[in-house]
């Protein structure tokens, strides 16, 4: 494992003369006309390329120049051909043991590997990540200089941080480790559940800890995309895990492509229940992806499950980032950070689909879960507090309070417009033939310091014309459907 880690950024570099010639060919002009200074030694040298630090002559900005290793493409094509030829002899065993042919596995691997050889594609990936995190003061994505970049050369903003390959330096720098881990896990979950575009290779050499507590990513050659539908199903799976609905969790596997359509999921349900209860049943403190993945591997071999390529990247990405967390904090608990993010997302995300899932979480077997609502609020507030404390600079300030204005406004709209929701909420307040005033007060006390009641009330009043319109439309539709 230690030898393989060397391939991340410590491979013997190819000569500077060759690298500088490639840069000049891509620029179409001499180096000295663009850069006032460039390092004579590489900052990092990986299996596919190497990096130099330089200063732009025009602006004085420090940049990183990534150069593709010459002659690497024919070597990779040759090796992929050899792999695929070998795979053709293993198809029968692969179909029997894994449920798919070995050639397909090689094709998926090769497709992602070849994408990393095109720096033009990587530049576009960086632009997409910049757009996604533009309003997030806890994440740093380097700016890309597209006019200076090409298919073999990539010029990016220089990241002045500490690589996660040096966990001791991060600890010695005075960075708040707990805050940095919260920021990192939240950023990873945002990529996965919110943007659907995530870093596919977040090894320690590609992640930096900034001295102000932010997390920075580099090397965007390997990224993967999840569809809107897949993102929603993943959130469904989280909801089903919270509600301990293992049958629906098994159906989520079918919807995500782990199981072929029409597969009988009934034999898988007890196995999923055993894995989840064994992993999370003892509480958040005992959960980690290593143990879940190890148990899930057994499930893959015992049932007709095939892990789609995009989700193998998801699993690898989460395992790698969890590993980084363990090097910084050996007793790190993933769910203690992940659950607060999910809770905040369920409570504050404006997406209507998330509102529906919030309702699913709050109602179990038709009974309103008051304690679950309190826990969600406590966890969401915890996420906001930790994120606020993790990064505080003069230029950017993170959100310091849990903003539920839109959630309350939407809740009021649903209560007035949706007869089914109105009935459920009224039943929640009168369950067991009693008014649940105390539970309502407990929830209010949790939100008292965060919610500006007059402002929220004003927002609700302002929205009344739209609510009235929706109410009339809903009523007219119900009348027409009755006829």
TrEMBL record:
Pfam families with a match to the protein in the record: ABC1 (PF03109)
Protein kinase domain location: 37-368
PROSITE patterns according to UniProt: PROTEIN_KINASE_DOM (PS50011)
GO molecular function, one term: protein kinase activity
Family of this protein: Belongs to the protein kinase superfamily. ADCK protein kinase family.
PANTHER family in alphabetical order: CHAPERONE-ACTIVITY OF BC1 COMPLEX CABC1 -RELATED, PROTEIN ACTIVITY OF BC1 COMPLEX KINASE 1, CHLOROPLASTIC
Official protein name in the record: Protein kinase domain-containing protein
Species this protein is from: Kalanchoe fedtschenkoi (Lavender scallops)
